[in-house]
Specification:
The complex is a heterodimer of chains A (244) and B (223).
Chain A: H1 5-28, H2 42-67, H3 74-105, H4 114-133, H5 139-167, H6 179-183, H7 189-241
Helix pairs in contact in A: 1-7, 2-3, 2-5, 2-7, 3-4, 3-5, 3-7, 4-5
Chain B: H1 2-19, H2 21-40, H3 47-76, H4 80-86, H5 91-120, H6 128-153, H7 159-170, H8 172-186, H9 194-220
The chains are: A mainly alpha (244), B mainly alpha (223).
Chain lengths: 244, 223
């Protein structure tokens, strides 16, 4: 099963947009007055955080679609798992890039700020989900278990967020999704467009990774099935010839 | 449905009363945790008394893990799980029953732990109303979410290691909110505690509802 032409075009577009992003972020955009070159981290940090949310959104959606009897199909569980894996990788990257950024601007690697803490909890929540996915068993039971676990984790997120937000808040406000600043961004023109480009490029990357991870999972399933069939056929042949 | 839940809870509590695992193992473990905290934190400099609320809830979480493992270990032997499925009880009632039994055990443990904190950490209790409401709501939330994950992990080969990894991050808000609310009560400023109590209430309602809905599909699985 080779990748389709669409996937390959997507791959090329991803690489091209990431290359363009690198040029825009490192060369064309100016350094910040206060943060100097450290501000360039925003062009990967924010896009990676976006991918993280989108990925876990896909996981939640896949899990719901699996649990609703009318749309129940094995592929939704596979999709949820593929998205969660990518989501966990990007959550890790968000934490690392955020730490580096925090070290240069706040002077500390880590601070118990609301969004940092929520992200850390999110990371552990979905590490647990991935661990659960690796536990074997009957495919139907597994998929049902996975979907319920994913949803139980997802409905926890708003509560975690609210609780740590009350607990303490230090993080700078969201750069893009603040209603007031969305239409009147307070960041410099090229910086704004580069950030949007970054988000677009990383979403392309996410789609490309998701398609490939999904196909890999399907191939793994198929290999498992065929391995089982072959083993059955071999045992049957042994029984017929009467000798091992 | 509520009668079925009461039957279920009665069965679980009766097993605990007769096997004495909770009284002979979990409760002493709770006290042991309190003593270990005293070794880890210097009791002379008042660190223990100041951290008492947080330590109390961490100890409750550890005990909750044991109680939940235990609640599903009793269903593992002799195909009890299949019997449960065949019993004709509504899955929602089974969930409510098991969760109530876990909640009752946790409540008893909290009383022991609370007494331990008062005696060992030399912390006097203030704001009893806030404390009681906090304990009740946190216990309901812990029991509900614990029962969901307990059923999820039951029957898996790796359940002992998987359950803490799955459960502890989910109950992080409970630890946070219950600790803040208890601190407010003990510190004599109950007004600061009520928003946290609301959060605990929301958590409890969400996971009780989720469990009632999700327990049917969870019990169906046959692995």
């Amino acid at each position: 099963m080779r990748s389709g032409i669409g996937t390959r075009i997507l791959g090329v577009a991803t690489v091209a947009s990431l290359a363009l992003l690198a040029v825009m972020a490192l060369v064309i955009t100016p350094a910040d007055v206060n943060q100097l070159d450290a501000v360039r981290l925003i062009y990967i940090h924010v896009p990676m955080a976006t991918v993280m949310y989108v990925a876990f959104g896909v996981t939640a959606l896949g899990s719901i679609l699996y649990l609703v009897p009318r749309t129940r199909a094995h592929k939704w569980d596979v999709l949820a798992g593929a998205a969660a894996e990518i989501g966990v990788v990007f959550t890790g990257l968000v934490l690392v890039s955020g730490s580096i950024w925090g070290r240069t601007t706040w002077g500390v690697w880590w601070t118990w700020d609301a969004r940092l803490t929520t992200t850390a909890v999110l990371f552990v929540l979905f590490l647990g989900y991935l661990a659960l996915r690796r536990v074997g068993g009957d495919p139907d039971a597994r998929a049902r278990r996975n979907s319920i676990a994913a949803l139980a984790a997802c409905i926890d997120l708003p509560i975690v967020h609210k609780s740590v937000e009350w607990w303490r808040t230090l993080h700078q406000k969201s750069s893009l999704l603040d209603e007031e600043t969305f239409l009147h961004p307070h960041i410099h023109g090229t910086m704004y467009w580069t950030l949007l480009l970054g988000i677009g490029a990383f979403l392309l990357l996410f789609s490309w990774l998701l398609i490939n991870r999904y196909r890999l999972a399907k191939l793994e399933d198929r290999m498992e099935d065929q391995g089982l069939e072959r083993a059955l056929a071999e045992r049957r042949a042994e029984a017929l010839t009467g000798a091992p | 449905m509520l009668r079925d839940a009461a039957v279920m809870a009665g069965k679980d509590l009766r097993i605990e009363m007769r096997s004495r695992v909770a009284t002979n193992q979990v409760a002493p473990f709770a006290l042991l945790v309190l003593i270990l905290f005293a070794f880890a934190l210097d009791p002379d400099r008042g660190v223990l008394a100041r951290a008492a609320a947080g330590l109390f809830w961490v100890a409750v979480l550890f005990c909750a893990l044991l109680a939940i493992q235990r609640a599903f270990a009793v269903e593992a032997a002799d195909g009890a799980r299949d019997n449960l499925r065949l019993s004709g009880l509504d899955p929602a009632a089974i969930f409510l029953g098991k969760a109530s039994a876990v909640a009752a055990e946790l409540a008893a443990l909290e009383i022991i732990l609370g007494a331990g904190v008062v005696v060992l950490y030399n912390r006097s209790l203030h704001g009893p109303g806030l404390l009681v409401v906090t304990c009740v709501l946190a216990t309901v939330g812990l029991a509900a979410v614990g029962t969901i994950y307990g059923a999820l992990a039951a029957g898996l080969r790796v359940r002992e290691t998987l359950l803490p990894l799955l459960l502890l991050p989910v109950v992080a808000p409970v630890l946070l909110a219950a600790t803040r609310a208890s601190e407010a009560a003990l510190g004599g400023s109950p007004a600061d505690g009520w928003p946290w109590v609301r959060l605990l209430g929301v958590f409890a309602v969400i996971y009780v509802t989720f469990g009632v809905v999700a327990f049917g599909p969870l019990l169906e699985e046959s692995s």
